[in-house]
Amino acid sequence: MTQILKNRDALLALVVAGLIGAAALAYPGFAAPGNLAGVLDDTAILIILALAQMLVILTRAVDLSVAANLALTGMLVAMLNAAWPSGGVLPILVLSVAIGAALGAVNGLLVWRLGIPSIVVTLGTLSIYRGMIFVVSGGAWVNSHRMSPEFLDLIRGTFLGLTILSWFAVAAVVAAAVLLRFTVVGRNLFVAGGNPSAAAYIGVDAGRMQFVAFVVSGAVAGLCGYFWVSRYAIAYVEVALGFELQVIAACVIGGVSIVGGTGTVVGVVLGALFLGIVKNALPLVGISPFWQMAIAGAVITAAVVLNAAQVKAPSRRILKEAEA
Amino acid sequence: MIAAEEVKKAPAAPAAPRAGIAAPLLRWESVLLLCVVAAFAVNAWASPYFLDIWNLSDATFNFTEKAIIALPMALLILVREIDISVASIIALSSVVMGLMAEAGFSTPVIALAGLLTGLLAGAFNGLLVTVFRAPSIVATIGTMSLFRGIAYAVLGDGVLKAYPASFAWFGQGYVWGPLSFEFALFLGLAVVFGIVLHRTTVGRRLYAIGSNPTAAIFSGVAVDRYRFALFALVGLAAGLASVCLTSRLGSTRPSIATGWELEVITMVVLGGVSILGGSGTIVGVVLAAFLMGLVTFGLGLINVPGVVMQIVVGFLLILVVAAPIVIRRALSRRRP
Amino acid sequence: MAAPSLRLSDVTKSFSGVRALTNGSLELVPGQVTALIGENGAGKSTLVKILTGVHQPDDGTIELDGAPIRIRTAADAKRHGITAIHQEAVVFDDLTVAENIFAGERPRNRIGLVDWRVMRSRAAKLLADLDAPFDPDVRVGSLSIAQKHLVQIARALAVDARIVIMDEPTAALSHRETEDLFAIIRRLRAEGRAVLFISHKFEEIFAIADRYTVFRDGAAVGAGRVADATKDDLIRLMVGRSVDQIFPKAVAAIGEEALAVEGLSHPTEFDDISFSVRRGEILGIYGLVGSGRSEVMQAIFGLQPQARGSIRVAGQTVAIRRPHDAIRAGIVYVPEDRQHQGAILKLPIAHNIALPNLGQLSRASFVSLAGERALAGEYASRLQVRMSGLGQLVEELSGGNQQKVVIAKWLATGPRVLILDEPTKGIDVGSKAAVHRFMSELVSQGLAVVMVSSELPEILGMSDRVAVMARGRLRRIVPRSEATAEAIMQVATDA
pTM for the full model? Predict the structure, then answer.
């Protein structure tokens, strides 16, 4: 299985490279370092969210509320910044993580303590969180001239040719890789999702791991809420509407199994990059950006079929064992 | 063996008060009926115009199309599947109808094309689940993006509105006095679905599949055929809803019916259909449709914006799933 | 004899009103292997789950070295040095062998990160000690069941467990693999660990155990030294009566061929299976878990679409692609896993019995409720289902009565061939006898019965002929006159 997954990552890497190549053929400037850095900046939030979503999916759950969480937290910190422009960015960062984590904890508690299917819980909270944006903002927009320069500039700074936002994504990749490979919590996410009943025998509470994953997913969504309103310099009710589908798409394309227990950081990053490149290349090669959703949908559907085919193979084979 | 033990361990459903006078009152449908009556009374008290027959007829429009999809969706959830792509199917079907209208086809052809698009989209979902063995949640998350994506790809930020005048009848016409075509259609379908689920062999097999799909297969039930048929049926119903909605609005935009999947699923779950499969009634779903219609209409009367109603819908969804779990736990704790 | 290290006294446990343990008493002694013996449903698994912290006892005491302890979680069990190797191999298929061994307690470096190098080398050493023929880096999903047991044993050694519980570890093992396991158990014993060995194979108990405790209906009914006991003593304790009364021998006139299977093969599960069964005959199918017996039966019933071969019912070749075809041809199948495959627990008895008979009970698809009640009532009373009414949910019935409902549902279809897969697994002694009596009655009425069982006494008592399977192949068909426990085990374990 590891072999297949590794091959799968390599295959996906080839597809992504091929995509860049094809876009460069049609529009030579696409592969220029500056343009690729721009694509990375544009995909950074998707990468960060997809990595967090992966933790949730590893435990056999799914978090559909990430985009609504992002939008609500983004609105709250934007309003805070508008009301208290001299407060600086640090309280904004801390608060966005805290609000996001709290919203994620609501999901986690409902899934863990009440055993409600995560799809139902997060479909409900997605609706509640989105509605709450209207309640807190009264339907009004917070636009760039009401945001402080620090609020807007943090993620725009560059270092070694990449934006700070891109560096946040790089940091997220490293953090996810270390978490999932070298920490007990990270490994227990695989244990909880791979075989929840066996997890109990070795002292791992699968429900608690789901809770942990939801809190992390929420915290990350909250942080990305700040990134989003800062990057697009505007906060309103419909921010990132439907973006959860892109996030889940990145995971599914990246080979994270929806039945839990398997997935790689590399795969998820490649899945997100795939979507980011498609989005950025389309207008350059003369295809309407309105195609983006359809292409994403087609790719998710194909990936779902592909993943299902992998799971289908039965693990026990009597005749094969007899020969061994 | 663990699993077998687990079944025993699970607290028994609150089956105790099955006999006695209190029994019918404790049924979920009775609770819903009381809520419907209460919501009706509150609306009547809040607005002097509410009880006007034409006003009541108007009130049905905001839930009828969703309720039409909720009927087959109830059967789908009953057999442990789900279709999140229904709102996208509406959009796709509406775009196809819009294009047919642009091309100058007549009303019946346009409507048939809308239904057929829904049926094919639903069948595609069914194919993914039964042939390719994709879990229905992810499969329909994928097609949700795919179907609406196609609608956007075709239409961009454009709008299609070259519908013939006669097309408006589906969403704006009345069959008898203040009884709209849409609402009559829903009532008729509700009766048909109720009979099929509660009186026929099909219904019996659906309950069997939902209660234990493996045992159903082992009992000779062609489980995958039923699953496929239900996905196709949900698609067809979404096509039908699309005909009504498009006709009512008189135009097609790719963003049509955004977020409806949530309300449809909430309607079904609120109606007492277990998200884990195997239990639920059509009466419950119909009552839930009325209840949600009355609540949203009432909130509209006091000028609550639509996006805030989302909060109510979201709360309802979680509450109706959580409440029985919490109550069951409280009951089993009190028992020795 | 050394003082017991672990002592359970009067432990009780109920699950939603059903008493699984009424008097769970047990002593484990360091450096000795204690066999826990009992029929399915005697409470052995519940006891194991209490010892490993999965379930909490309602009452009673657990003492470790004379001091009372409570085992609330798996972590508690581990802390007390108790570890279990489960029958169904509690492992993580997608993780490596090394991580499976250390999943509860991964070695970490100075800054708290998982130290894969140490984990791998410690795993390699443990595996070498056990003579395991695989590498710590392999994915556990690619191992055989016996190898997965080795991984679990390595897990027990890794935490240096004082008390090792083995819950039917040999159920799926070949003779050779069992011998290897015994060598390891002897080593654990020599190292002064207390081993609890759960099995219902007497040869194994006499080969490996020092002491025994017998459970019946949730209570300890006897204990002692294995050297002082005979097989008959143990059986008497287990079933509470003598053996020959349990299995009424079927006396029936054997008629013409009812079912013939020729060259039935499956790409991965079984190969070239041929047998036939006649009217009035009971054909026993014996094989170890994982020998492919259930897979063959499911293929005959249309549940293994990849299977190829020919099937004749009463001389007519039938094409069976799905269960519906089999039912139409007169073949019905009572599956092994009653709660997941056989009965629909959440539905009433009447609906369960009606399910495969809906065609005959309906007109234009409308179900006749009167017809349903009549049919369900008739068959429920023929099988003497103990119930409060036909509307009662099947989940409220005892295991034995659930099984009767499953059999009733199939008999109502009027079959020619009845396939029973482990028909008496996990049901009480009374129901067991009732099922056996009923089987005899059915064959005397001209039905052909195929009975899969892993209980040798049942196979020997009920079958007219015994087909023995091993590793996906049908090795031999033994007539009743030649069927002895030794002869059958010899073939089944492929020694």
Answer: 0.85
